[in-house]
Write a structure and sequence with these properties.
It contains seven helices and two strands. The protein has 200 residues and is mainly alpha-helical. 26% of the residues are buried.
Length: 200
């Protein structure tokens, strides 16, 4: 059944909720492919910003942890945690794709839940962002946009690195085209997602 896009008023909060679901779906699809790699392929040195598939997937996860905590604490009216940099110590906390996949799915559920709890008024709420030179003030809208862009960027790098392995890179250049619902139906069942809940 195709979604009806003509009856809803535009909502920035709903857009970010859809982005969060898309982010989880893309991670699910990419990690399923990466988990089929032999461990030696998973850790092998490759040409990219980070030197392996393992390193890049660990980076996506640790950055998600960092920003999720910042967003959750800011929305709760709390200051940044005492040591936000702990999420990057060690830089690569997991050795296997199965472990990364488990933790990434948990982080993705947190991000979906966070975005589902927002309304348009929350987009301008302040976010206290810890940096090396102090605490910067930003907004929920900007930090979410940054986080989604960051994950897309590094997923693309993993996708390219997969081309040099025994596993075919999965298609990731989609964003919920209504006529392609059947192509993602099985993955949506695995994730517990539904087209109706996402698009309302």
């Amino acid at each position: 059944m195709e979604a009806d896009f003509t009856t809803r008023a535009p909502s920035l909060a709903r857009h970010f909720a859809a982005e969060a679901h898309n982010n989880a779906w893309a991670n699910h699809r990419l990690l399923a492919a990466c988990c089929r790699l032999r461990q030696e392929e998973f850790v092998a040195p490759r040409t990219s910003f980070f030197p392996s598939i393992k390193a890049t997937l660990n980076h996506i996860l640790t950055v998600d942890w960092f920003y999720l905590e910042i967003l959750e604490r800011s929305l709760a009216g709390q200051p940044p945690a005492q040591d936000p940099g702990r999420h990057f110590e060690p830089e690569e906390p997991f050795e296997t794709c199965a472990d990364i996949s488990r933790e990434q799915h948990a982080a993705d559920k947190r991000l979906v839940s966070l975005c589902e709890g927002l309304d348009d008024a929350a987009m301008a709420r302040p976010v206290l962002l810890p940096r090396r030179d102090g605490i910067h003030r930003d907004s929920v809208e900007r930090i979410l946009a940054h986080l989604f862009q960051h994950d897309i960027h590094h997923r693309g790098q993993v996708h390219a690195m997969l081309s040099g392995t025994s596993v075919k890179p999965p298609q990731l250049d989609e964003f919920y085209c209504a006529n392609e619902a059947s192509l993602r139906a099985e993955e949506f069942r695995e994730l517990g997602f539904s087209e109706k809940e996402i698009w309302r």
